[in-house]
Amino acid sequence: MMCINILDMEKNIKSRVIEILKYKGLNVNRASKVLDIPQRTLNRQVNEDGNISMDLVYAILGCFPEISAAWLVAGEGSMIEDKEEVVLDGAPFYYDLPVSAGYRDAFDPARENPTAYISLPTRDADFYFPVSGNSMEPEINDGDIVGVKRVERSEGIEHGAVYMVVTNENRMIKRCYHDNNDPDLIWCVSPNYPSFPIHKNDVCALFRVVNRIETF
């Protein structure tokens, strides 16, 4: 899995958020009202040591449609999006994937509208989305953006690799291992929760995690 630290890019997300607020002439008090985010929360994220949340990123994109999502999320291009020159290049980024319960497949490109497009030196990922939850910390943190590539179940799972595993009840990112005794079982392992097996027949879709962007 390739890890791309957003701090190695030209500017990190926090500095870009601060740049947007300066561009809009907003202090924290005024910005909290415009973005509908508590002033204390916004001040902690912008002026103190708090992490920039994806809720704040999404609020900015919703309130200021002229701001380039690709620039804010990944540092690509210019802050102000030229609508006449927008090129849908790179892999789509989905801020909010649908809840997986009740779906045979938790991701359907024909049904979803991407929030932005992310183009990185490696073009392996089919799409990107933010991670929610701490089960894979510190390897993958809450709020990190991961890129995944779909693989066919018939290709099998690479022992010890990280996947987004989709079942009828759940969509989860786990490090997967083959069961030593039962070839039909896959063990899902994460640092902060007990490991558990699932049957291969219960897997509806399988995506290999190929990229990670550390957002903080």
Would you give an account of this structure?
The strands form 2 sheets. Strands 1, 4, 5, 6, 7, 8, 9 and 10 form an 8-stranded mixed β-sheet that branches. The model is unreliable at 1-11, 84-88 and 98-106 (pLDDT under 50). The chain is of the alpha+beta class and 216 residues long. The longest helix is centred in the N-terminal third of the chain and has 12 residues, at 13-24. Helix 2 (28-35) crosses helix 3. The protein has helices at 13-24, 28-35, 39-46, 54-63, 69-74, and strands at residues 2-5, 91-93, 116-118, 127-130, 145-151, 162-166, 171-178, 185-190, 193-199, 205-214. 29% of the residues are buried. It has a single domain, classed as Umud Fragment, subunit A (Ribbon).
